[in-house]
What does this fold into?
Amino acid sequence: MPAAQTPRARPAASRTATWRDVTPAAVVLVGGPEDYLGSRAMDRIRAQVRAAAPDVEVIRLVAGNYEPGSLAMHVSPSLFGEQKLIEVEGVEGMNDAFLADALKYLNRPEPDAVLVLRHGGGVRGKKLLDAIKAGGWPVVDCQPLKKDADKVAFVASEFKAASRRIDPDAVHALVNAVGAHLAELAAACSQLIADAATAVDSAMVDRYYGGRVEATAFKVADAAMAGNAPLALSTLRHALATGADPVPLVAALASKLRTLAKVAGAQGSSSQIAKQLGMQPWLVEQAQREVRRWTPEGLVRSIQVTAEADAQVKGLSRDPVYAVEHAVTVIAASARR
It folds into this structure.
């Protein structure tokens, strides 16, 4: 196995890796609550180990029901000298026996073994996590992608890794449509990458995922923000008639208005504003174009009516449908076409 995958000496300093670039080492910690990224990191390590040692023996353990001595037994060199890959799940729920054996193992890891620990977050096992970091072993931090900017970057990276092109508007449309769950977003990227003969555009995203509630919500918001009340209301009524919940519809309005308000109050070039606000430059440029049709009074009025609608659809009104329709009407009237 290459030296980078079976280090003979302890690394000099802790190394933070991403799930996209992590490489095998004697010990690797894959931590954080985002299961999809954690799975991708472990898949990547496994694939690299198998590429270097096709006859690798893969052993999977669960830290919560670990039996004392199991780790030492599994990492011991076999008669035929196969590479060992030990994958330990549920390290956040480890028992005391695993903690003791793992701490002992860190002092003298086997040179022909790769130990991958999956810790889903929390304080359980902090002593072990600290020892791994202090020992200089690679650590992958798998945190949920909560910001749209992070999801946009994720989509762009998926297409870049596949050497495929996707238009910026299509990235935004895809995040709006299926961005609630990272695994679904990744699956959508894979589907588009596999099916598209040329660059993916927003029309293709709409054909594949335009029927999703999230996508419909942003169609309503886009029409309202453009001052097109008839289109916004007809799209809204169709969405409600087909079972859409008012809550994500109002959330889409609020998201668009927040972006507009942030950009309207920012100074500098689009790239400078993007850096300040943690947004993609193209999204800032889009908001800068949209904000030209708004007066400060119209923007404030729209934000207020959306906040009221948000409270009403979450239980303060007996008629949440009217609350959404009223917000859409006010927003469309406030925008200058």
In short: Residues 296-316 form the longest helix (21 residues). Strands lie at 15-17, 27-31, 57-62, 84-89, 113-119, 138-141. The radius of gyration is 25 Å. The longest strand covers residues 113-119.
